[in-house]
Amino acid sequence: MDLDWDDLRIFLAVARGESLSAAGRVLKRDPATVGRRIARLEEVMGAPLFARSPQGYGLTEAGTRLMVHAEEAEQAVMRGAEALDRQTGTLSGQVRIGAPDGCANFLLPQVCARIAAQHPDLELHVVALPRVVNLSKREADIAIAVSPPETGRLTVQKITDYHLHLVASRGYIRRSPAIKSLDDIAGHPVIGYIPDMIFDKELDYLAEIGADHATLGSNSVSVQLNMLRQGAGLGIVHDFALPFAPGLRKVLPEAISLTRTFYLLRHAGDARIERLARVSGMVLDGVRAEVARLEART
Questions:
Q1: Which of 56, 142, 170, 245 sits in a 20 to 30 Å window from 31, CA-based?
Q2: pTM (2 decimals)?
Q3: Whether residue 182 is found in the same domain as residue 254
């Protein structure tokens, strides 16, 4: 059976994106061309690889079997590229890092800049999504999460604990009724996540401070931070984000202090890919150091 890597690469993109258009964006090809290549591959295989429906492309039994071999071929190609990197000691190629909004905005830019300075041929893409990054669909090669996953073929490493506090702008604190206890919070507008868009229980901060809803809400940490900077109310903020917003001040820091944890996730099948292992190690060390550096400034 005559299969080449390009056939398998297109098959993987459709399987992970579950549509021709999603695969086309990843491959930078027209969806119609992707569709023709899949049809030709199915002809070669002598069986349908996808079940088409209005919801998208789902793998058939034959497609599921091919997926195993296609991923093995993908890893072999990546290991081959690494063999060239080892000759020079540098890293090259593309690595996608998925992360929640706070980490993506306030930690990864500095971490990635330092890695890129050491390895100029390496492409680092930060994927900031308001949900859990799906490594199985290759939305990213490495992911940072605030909860260890309960399912999936993933390797998990703890990166570090981090801290959050209730904050408000100096202007808001000056013009508003004094906040001397937890009971006083009820008289103030609260900024936080949109309740039905909280994708991880660890992000449900308001429940821990006794607030039943957010007066102003967003699924983005950056938007919440900017609402607080405008003096719109009180909100929970990462300590590592506070150096980027010097006008904010902690409120009731002794009474309200939250601790969360970052975890580094990788697909178990990538364990033998040295490039990803090296980048993962640099991301882990970099995020850990950056959290410590920024929190020390608060």
A1: 142
A2: 0.73
A3: yes
